[in-house]
């Protein structure tokens, strides 16, 4: 139907038509694409070795201690025959960046460099020299860049001093320039008839592995880099290793077909349902790469359906992982959708320390107790849960080295240095058959059979967690892979809807003249006023109600009727949080120990502890308790922890910090969800405001009706800001981190004297009987427990209330200003025009004195247009 639509010959109409074609093709590509699993993480977490081991071939990908490939590697998977090993095809497809892709990549690197330098060293004039400049397509080529960047280095002797002393400039900025120079040199080396831009080449895998490596991390050059042109073309890259290596900066991705052994991973069933490919992303932040890898990853992550985030078990919190996550959020996915799309592999788990649980003797063990005594496991729990939105079946612990030993996999194609590291790590593993994590897994299972750590640890003891990871991927693809794929296609569909509406608007605007545009403004402003004044602002003002702690949240006004109503999620409720903190405090084991001491006492008072006993050296330990010389041997002779306020203060601090952190994270997620919800709701309005035909009309209208250009700029800026809630939330997010507790502050919130022996401590002298009865009565325990729970809950909810206030203090004025900036319907009129003379001294009959067309009706409305093909297309598309 679109080809039947006559497109008026205006730039706006042609641009809108091109946008429809572009978004339609994007949607088709996403529907037809295979289910794509992106493997992401920092370069030092061992993801390439893990990925190869997962597929049954540890040396499938280059594995070095330093970053290597620096490219996106696509592994297109097929199932092999039984008895055959996993193997890669003999040839590899090299896909080069198109000119447009290279232009965007250079723009990404340059814009980051400009923003940073203008903030830190404005005297360098990076923005003035390079802002808006594209060296790939600019007729001047790289000349402006080449004439500017030497200012980052010391000037030659006798020359005028640089605007900023070079020692004050971070080497990272020079390294970024060096990378841009490598891209420049590669681009200029291949220009001509046989350009590689947009080219695809099949190259022997051996040549690819030798040629495509990041340059080793070098010391930043002491002088500005010079041109280094080494010619190559699309013909010699297929056979010349050096030519292929020189083309490295222009490569977009490497595609490798892999046949997976069904004896190692029975992929047949999975591939029979959906074609699957794995994308191994370059490690962000690697030395030797200063922006190119990040730009390539940002573009490719748009079409990833499932994310396998590989983190280091000993250091799961990583800047690289957070950067990847931010990229995905910037693409418009909600935090909930990302949580459903993610799997987390805490890798190199063989280096994780087996926690000593001397302070937790016995057989029972809860997950919170384990995590309090095992920092590395707690880090995996905290940061893994952040990415999978608390979906514990999405977290696995893995290590390639135990898996290589368990499955007897060959790794002969790895470099000698890497093979030696694998052999050294293997030598440190426990003997085959020994299961070091089983005692902890069994204790957890006896206390909580459904806990996630028991299967996680047992899977690691089995084969390094590889089989657990395989099943997690299979289950996720079957359960969510197609859903995630369709979610990406749905985003493209919404973009296509908006593009079609924009095209229709431009077609009718071109046909109807000026008055139709002003009626359109009035209708759009009425829609926006409804959204702001009925839905957004009342909900934000409700967050400021002083009684929301008692209400446990707030109701969000809905839009639409019945099943068509939509609502964003509510922020974390203070009442629910307070109740949860209460329950957490009541579960402290010290309360139970004290009440048990009172139960055992004939007078039902909390018995005093006894002083530590001396050892005669003659006792023989009962076999079930193990070696008395270890940490467990002396644990029973310590003063009971519950005899001093220190133990309760420590618990108090941990509980408040944990629930405060959880609440802060929940509020952060709510902000992201709220922004994602309204970003989608406002999408058609943003399209309309950004329409090239709309902006000049609004600027003229506001300048005329609101008294000048400055006020028009300010009020239109308020409206544009309110339509971009994700940008607004980005600016608010830092406010959620400004409030931190220190130890002394938390001690001040604790409802008892800190660092003080309690009445049942053996060092406390005996008092009169009625005083002892009062001070050691179980009611004292109950009172202390209640006061502690109330204090902890109040401390946490006060923090959340303060943080929520920091959010609403920014959002409420923003949307109040936007509402005030909307013009009333009576103000939305075209400019007054003087009637032209018809040559007889009479006004023209074509336009009235106010610019009203004779086609308009008496009531100000316009007769209906004849239906256009674009109308039928939109109607049919909406029904389908």
If you had to describe this structure to a student in words, what would you say it looks like?
Helix content is 50%, strand content 7%. The protein is built from 32 helices and 10 strands. The longest helix is centred in the middle third of the chain and has 47 residues, at 466-512. It has 3 domains: 33-86 and 270-489, P-loop containing nucleotide triphosphate hydrolases (Rossmann fold); 88-260, no CATH class; 544-555 and 571-608 and 639-682 and 724-821, no CATH class. The chain is of the alpha/beta class and 880 residues long. Strands 1, 2, 3, 4, 5, 6, 7, 8, 9 and 10 form a 10-stranded mixed sheet that branches. Residues 546-566, 625-639 and 840-864 have low confidence and may be disordered. It comes from Streptomyces filipinensis. Residues 547-571, 601-643, 826-880 are annotated as: Disordered. InterPro entries: P-loop_NTPase (IPR027417). This is Dynamin family protein.
A few lines on this structure:
This protein is α/β, with parallel strands linked by helices.
Question: Secondary-structure map with pairings?
Answer:
Blueprint lengths: L10 H22 L2 E6 L6 H8 L17 E8 L7 E2 L2 E6 L2 H22 L5 H5 L12 H6 L22 H20 L9 E5 H7 L29 H6 L4 E10 L7 H6 L2 E5 L11 H9 L5 E7 L6 H12 L4 H7 E6 L19 H6 L2 H14 L6 E3 L2 H8 L8 H12 L10 H10 L5 H11 L2 H47 L1 H29 L5 H4 L22 H13 L2 H12 L44 H37 L1 H8 L4 H11 L3 H14 L2 H8 L10 H7 L19 H7 L2 H44 L47 H11 L1
Parallel strand pairs: 1-7, 1-8, 2-6, 8-9, 9-10
Antiparallel strand pairs: 2-7, 3-6, 4-5, 4-6
Helix pairs in contact: 1-19, 3-6, 17-18, 19-25, 19-32, 20-31, 22-24, 22-31, 23-31, 24-28, 24-31, 26-27, 27-31
